[in-house]
């Protein structure tokens, strides 16, 4: 059982991708703008990441931050991004959409899945915003998603653990349930043991100081809650190795 688990690491840079693979990640979720929960990355980022890592790279398809209720224009962007990511080496895709009343948008998801075919597709944490997760899970199974990433509709996978376990029981191997959200070395064992999940999702990042010597601290390039200009978050090889070891010992 020691090698039966799969660790997916969410990354938004080549450095993080390389570190994740070095640390023992089995798969990458490639995004931009992790401060907003992850948006579609550039094709350039996908190209260069694919040059430096050998593990599968699943690409986020999310045109903006905020909710998961998309306009016709945004749907056009998502479909074009899916086509381009497929053409440029994506091994899988990560996406999701909801209706205004908090259901999985089955009609739109079918359209997106048709464009994505034959790549495997994960339904992302839009799932954590649904009105009824039990019904939502059955919808995802019927649509043909390979897995769902979820914190159990709570602020972290640890808090959402009771629901994650119920979803695991409901899924019955028809779809993979992948816990994610706030997973660290301190809680991974409890989450894996409590859920029975064989996959988990983490970012395992540490702060990295900017190399800039001259700094203008009077100017910010984003909104008041944006990331600091002179600090980076990068996937931490040591943290990923620690999570890898915990998972092996647990499973």
From TrEMBL:
Family, per entry: Belongs to the CutC family.
**What GO molecular function annotations does the UniProt record carry, in alphabetical order?**
copper ion binding
Its annotated compartments are: Cytoplasm; Nucleus
State the name under which the record lists this protein. Answer: Copper homeostasis protein cutC homolog
Query: SUPFAM superfamilies from the xrefs?
Result: CutC-like
Per its database record, what is this protein's job? Answer: May play a role in copper homeostasis. Can bind one Cu(1+) per subunit.
Cross-referenced InterPro entries: CutC-like, CutC-like_dom_sf
Q: Which Pfam families match?
A: CutC (PF03932)
Keywords of the record, alphabetical order, are: Copper, Cytoplasm, Metal-binding, Nucleus
The organism sits in which domain of life?
Eukaryota
| Record's subunit section | Homotetramer.
């Amino acid at each position: 059982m020691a090698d039966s688990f799969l660790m997916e690491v969410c990354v938004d840079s080549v450095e993080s991708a390389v570190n994740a693979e070095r640390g023992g990640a089995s798969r990458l979720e490639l995004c931009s703008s992790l401060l907003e929960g992850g948006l579609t990355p550039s094709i350039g980022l996908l190209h260069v990441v694919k040059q430096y890592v050998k593990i599968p790279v699943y690409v986020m398809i999310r045109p903006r931050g905020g909710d998961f209720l998309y306009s016709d224009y945004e749907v056009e962007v998502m479909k074009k991004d899916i086509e381009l990511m497929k053409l440029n080496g994506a091994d899988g895709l990560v996406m999701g959409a909801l209706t205004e009343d908090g259901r999985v948008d089955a009609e739109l998801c079918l359209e997106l899945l048709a464009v994505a075919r034959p790549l495997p597709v994960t339904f992302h944490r839009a799932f954590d915003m649904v009105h009824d997760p039990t019904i939502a899970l059955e919808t995802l199974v019927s649509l043909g998603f390979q897995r769902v990433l979820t914190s159990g509709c709570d602020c972290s996978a640890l808090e959402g653990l009771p629901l994650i376990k119920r979803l695991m029981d409901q899924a019955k191997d028809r779809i993979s349930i992948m816990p994610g959200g706030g997973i660290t070395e301190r809680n991974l064992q409890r989450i894996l043991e409590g859920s029975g999940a064989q996959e988990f999702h983490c970012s395992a990042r540490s702060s990295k100081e900017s190399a800039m010597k001259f700094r203008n601290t009077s100017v910010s390039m984003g909104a008041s809650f944006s990331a600091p200009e002179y600090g980076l978050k990068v996937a931490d090889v040591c943290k990923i190795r620690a999570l890898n070891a915990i998972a092996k010992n647990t499973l």
